[in-house]
């Protein structure tokens, strides 16, 4: 299935230019906003093109992360912070546990899916590494201090901070534009979501999967799960493998065109819309398309580490998650009682005995 690609440029031209403040959107832009909210609702995902996030920016980031993940395990483990619950620095492979392994309700749900749409069953923890890097300003006062720790920079990577911060802030800008367009499409004020994202504990959390070691078809890199944050964004990976589940339960493999970004809905947007938009289920598995890319990369002598340039955007920890605007009148609103976003994240993570604020379970 081809997801539509939304070009953010016309919207950005309007909001950053002549209509500051009380924008009057032209009919085409209103249609684009409705397409954003409708696609998020129906598919839990969206492809966008943002002129501020070029394919070259994405390449520069992935090149650096490949160089990092190719380092020996002993080097990478110097960036491991288990006492900080892996909130910053590296998380080695074999630590993250897919929720489908521990959540009985989710296991029942996935058993009810038609055979062709069932996820692959992981046999244990995810065989992928992850690096956690915070992006954006932190709140001066917060009730959730433990979610905010000092960044970790690997030795010898002089470009690390600049590359991480620059790619991270570009992806947040793209998310903000999508969040505004979605708010308009959902019939909410333009800043309904972005006002709550201010000073949120956003995380740039690229993953590294060693396809040389784990490149067998059917290997599950990220077992069937949803993201607990607001919206997740990824640049294009050099190796395909991500599948998403549409609202109707159908499983589809995502193809991200060059120069595009992929957005996925997390649990926090589900809360704010009283389930009108639900958190998208997804998994990352070695498929035959991944095998083709592995073959091509080997022939061209390129890295066999699959890097995902994932960024988890969050609602600020001290902001309250509750159905917004007209969603408060939804018959499902009772399922989404008011809760501080920071408390919500802690609650979700306690399910699998992890702490911190990473975006996925
Ligand atoms: Fe995820």
From TrEMBL:
Keywords associated with the record: Iron, Metal-binding, Oxidoreductase
Gene Ontology molecular function: metal ion binding; oxidoreductase activity
InterPro entries given in the database record: IPNS-like_sf (IPR027443)
Protein name: Non-haem dioxygenase N-terminal domain-containing protein
Organism: Lactuca saligna
